[in-house]
Amino acid sequence: MNIDESPAAPAGTGAGPRLTRKGRATRDRIVAAAANLMFERGVAGTSTDDVRIAAGVSTSQIYHYFADKCALVRAVIAHQTQAVLEAQEPLLGNLDSLEALRAWRDLVVGIQRERECQGGCPIGSMASELSEVDNLARADLVVGFARWETPIRQGLQAMRDRGELTADADPEHLALATLSALQGGLLLTQLRRETAPLEAALDAMLGHIASYATTPSPAAPA
Amino acid sequence: MNIDESPAAPAGTGAGPRLTRKGRATRDRIVAAAANLMFERGVAGTSTDDVRIAAGVSTSQIYHYFADKCALVRAVIAHQTQAVLEAQEPLLGNLDSLEALRAWRDLVVGIQRERECQGGCPIGSMASELSEVDNLARADLVVGFARWETPIRQGLQAMRDRGELTADADPEHLALATLSALQGGLLLTQLRRETAPLEAALDAMLGHIASYATTPSPAAPA
DNA sequence: CGAGAATTGGAGTGTCAACTCCAGAAAGAG
DNA sequence: CTCTTTCTGGAGTTGACACTCCAATTCTCG
Question: Where in the numbering of this chain does the HTH tetR-type domain appear (chains A, B) (predicted)?
Answer without folding.
Answer: 24-84
